[in-house]
Amino acid sequence: MIRFENVSVRYEEDAEPTLRNVNLTVPEGELVLLVGPSGVGKSTLLGAVSGLVPHFTGGTLTGRVTVDGRDTRTHPPRELADLVGTVGQDPSAHFVTDTVEDELAYGMESLGLAPGVMRRRVEETLDLLGLAELRDRPIATLSGGQRQRVAIGSVLTPHPKVLVLDEPTSALDPSAAEDVLAVLQRLVHDLGTTVLLAEHRLERVVQYADQVILLPDAVMGPPAEIMSISPVHPPVVALGRLAGWAPLPLTVRDARRRAAPLKASLEGRAPTSPAGLLPHPTRNTAPPALEARGANPAPPAFEARGAGGSAPGSGPGASPAPRGPGRSPGLGKGRGGGFSLFRRRRTEPGTPTDTLVTVTALGVRRARVEALRRVDLQVAPGETVALMGRNGAGKSTLLSTLVGMIEPTTGTVRVAGRAPHSTPPRELIRQVGLVPQEPRDLLYADTVAAECTAADADAGATPGTCRALVDDLLPEIADDTHPRDLSEGQRLALALAVVLTGRPPLLLLDEPTRGLDYAAKARLVAHLRTLAADGHAIVLATHDVELAAELAHRVVIIADGEVVADGPTAEVVVSSPAFSPQVAKILAPQPWLTVEQVEAAL
Ligand SMILES: Nc1ncnc2c1ncn2[C@@H]1O[C@H](COP(=O)(O)OP(=O)(O)OP(=O)(O)O)[C@@H](O)[C@H]1O
Ligand SMILES: Nc1ncnc2c1ncn2[C@@H]1O[C@H](COP(=O)(O)OP(=O)(O)OP(=O)(O)O)[C@@H](O)[C@H]1O
């Protein structure tokens, strides 16, 4: 159905082609998964199928890509619209109408389908993707995951022969991701649809794939075969490789069948690493490290950078925390001037001591939606908290109130003792930095180098700090690239580096793993653990259960605007299959959550 014949793609300024001599055939009626490290060219390959590359991205394509016999170089995307449905990494880029229902109908309208058919398919899709309650909603008011569902729904309704999906589950909660994959599988089985999808969270998708393509070499084969050689693989495969299981299991179920000997050798042991998994010290008795910090209000890292540099750029007096030129303070970076606020207060032993964040009975109304209701939350310096919960539960809203972008409707929010919404941005950025769900919102310079220079200057950091962070997270990002032309993972790495350069006492991350391969994620985890050990508080909203298991001291689950669980990661995640990492499911009832822990214990 899809053929690549000797295809190479080179973007204008690049010395090397992004894709080189790719020869592949994706058969009709199969679900084929495209995998490979961040920035390797997955989106480029998908774009060559949908016609976006090179028509909209620039660059040159040599060789031939055909879809059902149509050459994508001579057929621009609109001439492929009846054949290929495409969802890119940024769903917002696709929307052509204003409301959910109109968007689901749009593709069918342009193909001239009968009104009765359109109506039926819209209703079906609203149900399948859990969008029924949102049918009249303006798309602009949807959460990230809700938007991704609409984008997927809008390409499903016309029943195209070919679906091309770029990280389609990246903003979805775990059960929505399962729903979407089940729908795709049904289209493949029942209608013979051909699906080509790229994904980083292989734990979610590999079991649905008929075949897997691994870049950069563009080898294609059965999932187990490719997973046995792939540098990117899900935890179940990593555990299988560690334990020497052959053939490699791809599902939790298969792995459980082989796990008895491994469980026997782990019997009686307890996880000792990684540090991120141990309950946070202030939840128990105060550890020496915190005592030391209490006595010295500025951690060494902050002192080292001194007081030089100007306040991070922001529109003077801009409030609420703006976006755009002069990096948003809400999204900005601090130099730790506010660390005196961390001085410990004497409290009863056994209770949380410092709290950097105190949220009390918070309610937030957004238009007609009660996005948060009576939320209480405390976060101490040195603590990493993962916010989890369904799409639209209120996670991003909570992060936005912590950074002053949204004003509480009821209740109070305090960060380092101040109300973020009424704190001048210039002061707030010393306390809080946010990596937003859409990293694009944070970046405004024309090149990676300029972005990093600005970040260093804003933070008063030694020149080169931000650039070193970028290299640490994801190597091979060129200085002169426009942030717009970066791959999704590269752009996120840059946004993370920009915010991490400021080392804010409170670091907020909204879904910080989109586009990141497992190795980059591991480097991010290592970095964040170091920051937490230095006394920074980290709050991240994430659907990535594997990330939460590796990083968070505590997990807070939000449902329909309310906190429904708040406790140590190991306790909270294993109490619900939807939030359990693969290793926990395989080795239950033993207490292991990550491959790293198992490896350390063996
Ligand atoms: N329009 C463009 N102009 C110039 N270079 C580009 C453009 N689009 C992508 N690139 C470059 O091509 C390379 C591959 O990008 P691509 O988005 O295809 O990777 P990817 O494998 O999808 O990455 P990710 O996993 O991060 O989504 C990257 O180095 C990127 O910087
Ligand atoms: N600007 C807005 N106007 C009206 N309602 C909004 C607006 N932004 C978000 N909402 C609604 O508020 C609720 C909470 O949204 P929020 O973005 O906080 O969810 P979330 O938990 O971060 O979701 P996701 O996991 O999909 O990112 C959702 O029902 C959403 O549709």
What do you see in this structure?
With 602 residues, the protein is of the alpha/beta class. It has a domain of 327 residues: 3-Layer(aba) Sandwich (Rossmann fold), CATH 3.40.50.300. Helix content is 34%, strand content 19%. The strands form four sheets. It has a six-stranded mixed sheet, with helices on both faces. A six-stranded mixed sheet has the order 15-16-17-13-18-19, sandwiched between helices. The protein has a four-stranded antiparallel sheet with strand order 2-1-4-5, with helices on one face. Helix 3 crosses helix 4, helix 16 runs parallel beside helix 18 and helix 17 packs across helix 18. The radius of gyration is 24 Å and the shape is globular. It starts with a strand and ends with a helix. Bound molecules: adenosine-5'-triphosphate (2 copies). This is Cobalt ABC transporter ATP-binding protein. InterPro entries: AAA+_ATPase (IPR003593), ABC_transporter-like_ATP-bd (IPR003439), ABC_transporter-like_CS (IPR017871), ABC_transpr_CbiO/EcfA_su (IPR015856), ECF_ABC_transporter_ATP-bd (IPR050095), P-loop_NTPase (IPR027417). It comes from Streptomyces vietnamensis.
